[in-house]
Design a protein that fits this description.
- The protein is built from six helices and seven strands, in the order βαααββαβαβαββ.
- The protein has 177 residues and is of the alpha+beta class.
- Strands 1-2-3-4-5-7-6 form a seven-stranded mixed sheet.
- Helix 5 packs across helix 6.
- The model has no long low-confidence stretch (mean pLDDT 89).
Length: 177
């Protein structure tokens, strides 16, 4: 897969039905919250009620293939967020977090997520973001491996609390393996 085959476009209102379908899929349900609640969060982003997060669809050869977002850490460095996620206070306020999911479960484990995530982070880096983090569940071995392949490395000095997240940071100088 070449970087030219990977595209990104902001989520629009017309995408809600597509996202509602994706959120119902088993591989999404395993790691995401209740589908209607999650779709509500995305609606808040698209409709301007949540300005801390930017949602995108990623495309492969022009066709929607999954969801990716980035969010600003600084607005989440407050007690109501940090009590359950102490790591938020341990990363730079200028950091952004990223999250992604492939639309189709049959595409998992093929290197697509790693390639998309790496390309997205390269674009964020080109926009001036110097600290890009991701917080997978440590039990999600497939995601952790994909994130490593994309260039993320664990932040050993950052603790997540009750081992609910593995905090990893993007390193663009690390070649994808």
């Amino acid at each position: 897969m070449t970087p030219g085959e990977i595209g990104f476009r902001p989520v629009e209102r017309d995408d809600y039905a597509l996202l509602a379908d994706w959120l119902q899929r088993a591989h999404w349900r395993e790691w995401w919250g209740e589908p209607e609640t999650e779709l509500g969060y995305i609606r808040d982003m698209v409709e301007g009620r949540d300005l801390t997060c930017r949602p995108f669809l990623f495309t492969l050869a022009g066709s929607p293939a999954g969801y990716i977002q980035f969010w600003h850490v600084a607005p989440h460095q407050r007690p109501e967020w940090a009590d359950g996620n102490p790591w938020l206070m341990q990363v730079p306020a200028t950091a952004v977090g990223v999250d992604l999911s492939l639309a189709d479960g049959d595409r998992l484990g093929r290197g697509i997520g790693s390639a998309v995530l790496r390309r997205f982070c390269e674009l964020l880096s080109a926009q001036g973001y110097r600290s890009i983090v991701i917080d997978p569940d440590p039990g999600n071995g497939r995601a952790v491996a994909a994130y490593r392949k994309a260039g993320f490395r664990p932040m050993p000095d950052v603790t997540s609390g009750a081992d609910t997240a593995l905090i990893m940071q993007f390193h663009s100088d690390k070649p994808a393996s």
